């Protein structure tokens, strides 16, 4: 009976997270690249930054957006704290990771659904004159596609099922124990440091846009600071990553060697 409840709960969390990920791609890439938000322009977009910071019609949505981002960052950090993880593990057991993923997805959904664009006010940069108005959005689109492909590839390498909490439930139902218990100490050390294995790619998505208005600047700046604080690799972690990459490349090259012989 418990297994019949655990599996649907883990699957529901996974589906919610997957749908949120798709929505996040639309929010961070498709809207700014394909014109889903009002374009800046006119005299309001040319006013100075000091004047914009005194304009209540600009400050109000920026303050609202900042509150949404702080809600997401607070949830993401608080539930990752050891005390909170121990508490949720005590009451939710093997569903602890699924609960964390579901709450993160819900917090991110709040950010995306209630985000207030700021079409008025100054922009940090904007591609207007030709040929930049044509080529800069195209270049941004290509870089976003490459970044998202890299993100999905890296997530698969980092055991996506475990990241989403599915593997924990699967192992529990089959009586195999905790998946992390089967990993090497060096892998566990890496995972404790590398909370966001797609840092560089996400930064590319956040900053490489044709027009960087005030709300996009707020989004990119705050998430960049958060990613920077969460991204704490050292030389030992980098050596382990290099060794694992060489091992995987060696395994991929072995069938080709066999065919050559």
UniProtKB/TrEMBL annotation:
Coiled coil: none annotated. This is Nurim. The keyword Transmembrane applies. InterPro entries: Nurim-like. The chain crosses the membrane at residues 58-78, 99-115, 135-158. Belongs to the nurim family. Signal peptide: none annotated. Keywords: Membrane, Transmembrane, Transmembrane helix. It comes from the Eukaryota. It is a multi-pass membrane protein. GO terms for cellular component: nuclear inner membrane. Its main location: nucleus. It is found in: Nucleus inner membrane.
């Amino acid at each position: 009976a418990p297994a019949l409840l655990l599996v649907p709960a883990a699957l529901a969390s996974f589906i919610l997270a997957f749908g949120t990920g798709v929505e996040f791609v639309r929010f961070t890439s498709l809207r700014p690249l394909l014109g889903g938000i009002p374009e800046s322009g006119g005299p309001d977009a040319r006013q100075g930054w000091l004047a914009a910071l005194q304009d209540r019609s600009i400050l109000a949505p920026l303050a609202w957006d900042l509150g949404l981002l702080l809600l997401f960052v607070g949830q993401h950090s608080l539930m990752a704290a050891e005390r909170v993880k121990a508490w949720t593990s005590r009451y939710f057991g093997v569903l602890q990771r699924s609960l964390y993923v579901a709450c993160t997805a819900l917090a991110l959904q709040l950010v995306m659904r209630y985000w207030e664009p700021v079409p008025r006010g100054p922009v940090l940069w904007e591609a207007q004159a030709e040929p930049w108005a044509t080529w800069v959005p195209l270049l941004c689109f290509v870089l976003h596609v490459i970044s998202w492909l890299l993100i999905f590839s890296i997530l698969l390498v980092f055991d996506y099922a475990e990241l989403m909490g599915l593997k924990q439930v699967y192992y529990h139902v089959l009586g195999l124990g905790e998946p992390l218990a089967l990993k090497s100490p060096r892998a566990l050390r890496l995972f404790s440091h590398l909370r966001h294995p797609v840092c560089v790619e996400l930064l590319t998505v956040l900053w490489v846009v044709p027009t960087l208005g005030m709300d996009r600047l707020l989004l990119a700046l705050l998430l960049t600071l958060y990613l920077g604080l969460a991204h704490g690799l050292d030389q030992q972690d980098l050596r382990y990553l290099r060794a694992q990459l060489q091992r995987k490349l060696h395994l991929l090259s072995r069938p080709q060697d066999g065919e050559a012989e």
